[in-house]
Design brief:
By secondary structure, the chain is an alpha/beta fold. Helix content is 24%, strand content 22%. One of its GO terms (cellular component) is cytoplasm.
Length: 287
Protein backbone atom coordinates (compact mmCIF):
# COMPACT_ATOMS: atom_id res chain seq x y z
CA UNK A 1 0.00 0.00 0.00
CA UNK A 2 1.35 3.51 -0.76
CA UNK A 3 3.09 5.19 2.15
CA UNK A 4 1.17 8.45 1.84
CA UNK A 5 -2.40 9.32 0.82
CA UNK A 6 -1.13 11.42 -2.04
CA UNK A 7 0.24 8.37 -3.80
CA UNK A 8 -3.26 7.03 -4.50
CA UNK A 9 -4.25 7.52 -8.12
CA UNK A 10 -7.78 8.89 -7.84
CA UNK A 11 -8.56 9.55 -11.49
CA UNK A 12 -11.81 11.14 -12.63
CA UNK A 13 -12.59 8.03 -14.67
CA UNK A 14 -12.82 5.87 -11.56
CA UNK A 15 -16.35 4.75 -10.64
CA UNK A 16 -17.61 6.55 -7.56
CA UNK A 17 -21.32 5.66 -7.37
CA UNK A 18 -22.86 4.64 -4.09
CA UNK A 19 -25.12 1.83 -3.02
CA UNK A 20 -28.18 1.77 -0.81
CA UNK A 21 -29.68 -0.37 1.91
CA UNK A 22 -31.71 -3.34 0.71
CA UNK A 23 -34.04 -5.88 2.23
CA UNK A 24 -31.03 -8.17 2.32
CA UNK A 25 -29.69 -5.98 5.10
CA UNK A 26 -26.49 -5.14 3.22
CA UNK A 27 -25.41 -1.70 2.09
CA UNK A 28 -23.20 -1.85 -1.01
CA UNK A 29 -20.60 0.82 -1.61
CA UNK A 30 -18.46 0.16 -4.71
CA UNK A 31 -14.82 1.15 -4.34
CA UNK A 32 -12.78 3.67 -6.21
CA UNK A 33 -10.47 1.66 -8.43
CA UNK A 34 -6.84 2.47 -7.77
CA UNK A 35 -3.65 0.62 -8.56
CA UNK A 36 -4.43 -3.05 -8.04
CA UNK A 37 -7.63 -3.48 -10.03
CA UNK A 38 -7.99 -7.20 -9.42
CA UNK A 39 -7.90 -6.98 -5.65
CA UNK A 40 -10.43 -4.18 -5.84
CA UNK A 41 -12.81 -6.16 -7.98
CA UNK A 42 -12.67 -8.96 -5.44
CA UNK A 43 -12.62 -6.64 -2.48
CA UNK A 44 -15.80 -4.71 -3.16
CA UNK A 45 -17.77 -7.96 -3.23
CA UNK A 46 -17.14 -8.56 0.43
CA UNK A 47 -16.54 -5.20 2.04
CA UNK A 48 -16.63 -6.77 5.50
CA UNK A 49 -13.60 -8.92 4.72
CA UNK A 50 -11.11 -6.75 6.59
CA UNK A 51 -13.07 -4.44 8.84
CA UNK A 52 -16.26 -2.59 9.56
CA UNK A 53 -17.63 0.92 9.06
CA UNK A 54 -15.78 3.32 11.32
CA UNK A 55 -17.97 6.38 10.89
CA UNK A 56 -21.52 7.17 9.84
CA UNK A 57 -22.32 8.18 6.30
CA UNK A 58 -21.17 6.92 2.94
CA UNK A 59 -17.66 5.73 2.41
CA UNK A 60 -15.64 4.01 -0.28
CA UNK A 61 -13.59 0.89 0.29
CA UNK A 62 -10.23 0.71 -1.42
CA UNK A 63 -8.46 -2.65 -1.53
CA UNK A 64 -4.82 -3.05 -2.44
CA UNK A 65 -2.23 -5.80 -2.42
CA UNK A 66 -1.32 -5.95 1.25
CA UNK A 67 -4.19 -4.28 3.05
CA UNK A 68 -7.20 -2.04 2.55
CA UNK A 69 -8.25 1.50 3.28
CA UNK A 70 -11.30 3.71 3.47
CA UNK A 71 -11.62 7.01 1.62
CA UNK A 72 -14.48 9.29 2.64
CA UNK A 73 -16.27 11.01 -0.26
CA UNK A 74 -15.13 14.60 -0.55
CA UNK A 75 -11.75 13.78 0.97
CA UNK A 76 -8.51 12.98 -0.80
CA UNK A 77 -6.90 11.24 2.14
CA UNK A 78 -7.01 7.76 3.57
CA UNK A 79 -8.87 7.82 6.87
CA UNK A 80 -8.35 4.24 8.02
CA UNK A 81 -6.18 1.20 7.40
CA UNK A 82 -6.95 -2.46 8.03
CA UNK A 83 -4.66 -5.39 8.63
CA UNK A 84 -5.30 -8.24 6.18
CA UNK A 85 -5.03 -10.62 9.15
CA UNK A 86 -8.03 -9.11 10.92
CA UNK A 87 -11.44 -10.73 10.60
CA UNK A 88 -14.83 -9.00 10.32
CA UNK A 89 -17.34 -9.16 13.14
CA UNK A 90 -19.95 -10.43 10.70
CA UNK A 91 -18.61 -12.97 8.25
CA UNK A 92 -20.72 -13.16 5.11
CA UNK A 93 -20.60 -16.42 3.09
CA UNK A 94 -17.35 -16.62 1.15
CA UNK A 95 -16.05 -13.39 2.70
CA UNK A 96 -12.49 -14.76 2.65
CA UNK A 97 -12.38 -14.83 -1.16
CA UNK A 98 -11.73 -11.09 -1.00
CA UNK A 99 -8.39 -11.82 0.66
CA UNK A 100 -6.93 -13.54 -2.41
CA UNK A 101 -4.09 -11.66 -4.10
CA UNK A 102 -3.71 -10.82 -7.80
CA UNK A 103 -1.00 -11.92 -10.21
CA UNK A 104 1.63 -9.18 -10.34
CA UNK A 105 4.29 -11.09 -12.28
CA UNK A 106 2.73 -11.89 -15.63
CA UNK A 107 1.58 -14.86 -17.69
CA UNK A 108 4.20 -17.28 -16.40
CA UNK A 109 2.26 -17.43 -13.13
CA UNK A 110 -1.25 -18.39 -12.08
CA UNK A 111 -3.83 -15.64 -12.55
CA UNK A 112 -4.22 -15.09 -8.80
CA UNK A 113 -2.83 -16.24 -5.46
CA UNK A 114 -5.50 -17.72 -3.17
CA UNK A 115 -2.93 -18.51 -0.48
CA UNK A 116 -3.08 -15.04 1.06
CA UNK A 117 -6.35 -16.01 2.73
CA UNK A 118 -4.41 -18.64 4.72
CA UNK A 119 -2.66 -15.79 6.55
CA UNK A 120 -5.95 -14.97 8.25
CA UNK A 121 -6.70 -17.65 10.84
CA UNK A 122 -10.47 -17.16 10.68
CA UNK A 123 -10.47 -17.13 6.88
CA UNK A 124 -8.59 -20.42 6.76
CA UNK A 125 -10.94 -21.98 9.31
CA UNK A 126 -14.08 -20.79 7.52
CA UNK A 127 -12.72 -21.97 4.17
CA UNK A 128 -12.05 -25.45 5.58
CA UNK A 129 -15.49 -25.69 7.17
CA UNK A 130 -17.20 -24.59 3.95
CA UNK A 131 -15.28 -27.16 1.91
CA UNK A 132 -16.18 -29.96 4.28
CA UNK A 133 -19.93 -29.24 4.50
CA UNK A 134 -20.87 -31.61 1.64
CA UNK A 135 -18.89 -34.41 3.29
CA UNK A 136 -20.34 -34.07 6.80
CA UNK A 137 -21.96 -37.51 6.76
CA UNK A 138 -19.36 -39.20 4.53
CA UNK A 139 -16.73 -41.68 5.64
CA UNK A 140 -13.20 -40.45 4.90
CA UNK A 141 -10.14 -42.53 5.80
CA UNK A 142 -7.38 -40.25 4.55
CA UNK A 143 -6.82 -36.79 3.09
CA UNK A 144 -4.44 -36.41 0.14
CA UNK A 145 -3.03 -33.04 -0.92
CA UNK A 146 -1.55 -32.29 -4.32
CA UNK A 147 1.86 -30.67 -4.77
CA UNK A 148 2.33 -27.91 -3.92
CA UNK A 149 -0.42 -25.64 -2.61
CA UNK A 150 -2.72 -28.57 -1.99
CA UNK A 151 -0.31 -29.52 0.80
CA UNK A 152 -1.33 -26.48 2.85
CA UNK A 153 -5.08 -26.78 2.43
CA UNK A 154 -5.02 -30.57 2.53
CA UNK A 155 -2.99 -30.78 5.72
CA UNK A 156 -5.26 -28.22 7.38
CA UNK A 157 -8.33 -30.24 6.38
CA UNK A 158 -6.72 -33.47 7.61
CA UNK A 159 -5.97 -31.88 10.99
CA UNK A 160 -9.54 -30.56 11.21
CA UNK A 161 -10.94 -34.03 10.51
CA UNK A 162 -8.44 -35.83 12.70
CA UNK A 163 -7.25 -37.90 9.73
CA UNK A 164 -3.87 -38.69 8.24
CA UNK A 165 -2.38 -36.75 5.34
CA UNK A 166 -0.84 -38.16 2.16
CA UNK A 167 1.33 -35.99 -0.11
CA UNK A 168 0.91 -36.49 -3.86
CA UNK A 169 4.12 -35.06 -5.25
CA UNK A 170 5.80 -33.94 -8.41
CA UNK A 171 8.22 -36.65 -9.50
CA UNK A 172 11.76 -36.85 -8.18
CA UNK A 173 11.28 -35.97 -4.51
CA UNK A 174 10.31 -39.20 -2.77
CA UNK A 175 13.09 -41.62 -1.79
CA UNK A 176 10.71 -44.60 -1.57
CA UNK A 177 8.94 -46.82 -4.09
CA UNK A 178 6.34 -44.79 -5.98
CA UNK A 179 3.70 -45.02 -8.67
CA UNK A 180 3.78 -42.21 -11.22
CA UNK A 181 1.73 -40.77 -14.08
CA UNK A 182 2.20 -38.06 -16.69
CA UNK A 183 -0.04 -34.99 -16.82
CA UNK A 184 -0.27 -31.42 -18.13
CA UNK A 185 -0.72 -28.67 -15.54
CA UNK A 186 -2.81 -25.47 -15.86
CA UNK A 187 -0.08 -23.83 -17.97
CA UNK A 188 0.08 -26.76 -20.40
CA UNK A 189 3.48 -27.93 -19.19
CA UNK A 190 4.03 -31.69 -19.26
CA UNK A 191 4.94 -33.03 -15.83
CA UNK A 192 5.10 -36.25 -13.84
CA UNK A 193 3.24 -36.85 -10.57
CA UNK A 194 3.98 -39.61 -8.08
CA UNK A 195 2.70 -41.08 -4.84
CA UNK A 196 4.19 -43.62 -2.44
CA UNK A 197 2.89 -47.18 -2.80
CA UNK A 198 2.84 -48.22 0.87
CA UNK A 199 -0.26 -46.30 2.01
CA UNK A 200 -3.17 -46.61 -0.43
CA UNK A 201 -4.95 -49.95 -0.10
CA UNK A 202 -8.03 -51.37 -1.80
CA UNK A 203 -11.17 -49.67 -0.52
CA UNK A 204 -9.39 -46.81 1.28
CA UNK A 205 -11.59 -43.73 0.98
CA UNK A 206 -9.52 -40.65 0.17
CA UNK A 207 -10.52 -36.98 0.03
CA UNK A 208 -8.39 -35.28 -2.65
CA UNK A 209 -7.50 -31.65 -1.99
CA UNK A 210 -5.88 -29.02 -4.18
CA UNK A 211 -5.92 -25.24 -3.98
CA UNK A 212 -7.56 -24.67 -7.38
CA UNK A 213 -8.77 -26.63 -10.40
CA UNK A 214 -8.27 -24.70 -13.63
CA UNK A 215 -7.85 -27.19 -16.49
CA UNK A 216 -8.39 -30.29 -14.36
CA UNK A 217 -5.24 -32.03 -15.61
CA UNK A 218 -3.51 -32.14 -12.23
CA UNK A 219 -6.57 -33.44 -10.38
CA UNK A 220 -7.28 -36.10 -13.01
CA UNK A 221 -3.71 -37.37 -12.60
CA UNK A 222 -4.11 -37.56 -8.82
CA UNK A 223 -7.39 -39.44 -9.22
CA UNK A 224 -5.65 -41.92 -11.51
CA UNK A 225 -2.89 -42.57 -8.97
CA UNK A 226 -5.42 -43.25 -6.22
CA UNK A 227 -7.67 -45.51 -8.26
CA UNK A 228 -4.84 -47.51 -9.84
CA UNK A 229 -3.94 -48.69 -6.34
CA UNK A 230 -7.49 -49.63 -5.45
CA UNK A 231 -8.28 -46.49 -3.48
CA UNK A 232 -11.67 -44.78 -3.63
CA UNK A 233 -11.92 -41.04 -4.29
CA UNK A 234 -14.38 -40.05 -1.57
CA UNK A 235 -14.47 -36.50 -2.91
CA UNK A 236 -12.60 -33.51 -4.28
CA UNK A 237 -12.22 -30.27 -2.31
CA UNK A 238 -10.71 -27.08 -3.68
CA UNK A 239 -11.29 -23.33 -3.40
CA UNK A 240 -12.52 -23.13 -6.98
CA UNK A 241 -13.33 -25.58 -9.77
CA UNK A 242 -13.42 -23.67 -13.03
CA UNK A 243 -15.87 -24.72 -15.72
CA UNK A 244 -13.15 -25.92 -18.08
CA UNK A 245 -13.53 -29.23 -19.89
CA UNK A 246 -11.42 -30.91 -17.21
CA UNK A 247 -13.18 -29.13 -14.37
CA UNK A 248 -16.57 -30.23 -15.67
CA UNK A 249 -15.30 -33.80 -15.98
CA UNK A 250 -14.20 -33.85 -12.35
CA UNK A 251 -17.55 -32.46 -11.16
CA UNK A 252 -19.47 -34.95 -13.29
CA UNK A 253 -17.67 -38.04 -12.02
CA UNK A 254 -16.89 -37.19 -8.37
CA UNK A 255 -18.46 -35.52 -5.38
CA UNK A 256 -16.92 -32.06 -5.27
CA UNK A 257 -16.82 -29.02 -3.04
CA UNK A 258 -15.56 -25.49 -3.65
CA UNK A 259 -16.08 -22.03 -2.16
CA UNK A 260 -17.23 -19.90 -5.10
CA UNK A 261 -20.84 -18.56 -5.08
CA UNK A 262 -22.66 -19.48 -8.29
CA UNK A 263 -23.31 -15.87 -9.28
CA UNK A 264 -19.56 -15.26 -9.31
CA UNK A 265 -18.52 -18.45 -11.09
CA UNK A 266 -18.55 -17.03 -14.62
CA UNK A 267 -16.23 -14.25 -13.50
CA UNK A 268 -13.77 -16.70 -12.01
CA UNK A 269 -13.98 -18.75 -15.21
CA UNK A 270 -13.00 -15.66 -17.19
CA UNK A 271 -10.10 -14.94 -14.79
CA UNK A 272 -11.21 -11.31 -14.52
CA UNK A 273 -13.97 -9.76 -12.43
CA UNK A 274 -14.68 -6.88 -14.79
CA UNK A 275 -18.19 -5.87 -13.76
CA UNK A 276 -17.78 -3.39 -10.91
CA UNK A 277 -21.55 -3.26 -10.41
CA UNK A 278 -21.95 -7.02 -10.00
CA UNK A 279 -22.54 -6.98 -6.27
CA UNK A 280 -24.70 -3.86 -6.53
CA UNK A 281 -26.95 -5.64 -9.02
CA UNK A 282 -26.95 -8.77 -6.89
CA UNK A 283 -28.17 -6.84 -3.85
CA UNK A 284 -30.83 -4.98 -5.84
CA UNK A 285 -32.21 -8.31 -7.06
CA UNK A 286 -33.03 -9.13 -3.42
CA UNK A 287 -35.52 -6.28 -3.13
Amino acid sequence: MPATPGSWNLSSSCPSFFGKSTTCGVEFVPPIIVQDRFSLRLGYLYRRAVGKQLASGDFIWVFCVNSAAVIMPGHDSIVAHFDIRKSPEKRDPGWYLALMAPNEKGSDYAWLDPSRLYCNQQALQDCIEDLLLPFTDDHIDLVAGIDAMGFILGAAIAAHLGKGFLAIRKAGHLCVKTRSTNYADYSGKEKVMEVRTDVIKTGLRILLVDQWIETGGTMKAAIKLVEEQGGIVAGVATICIEDSEGGKWVKKHYKCSDCVPEYLRSHFNNHVLENVQLYYNQQNSCE
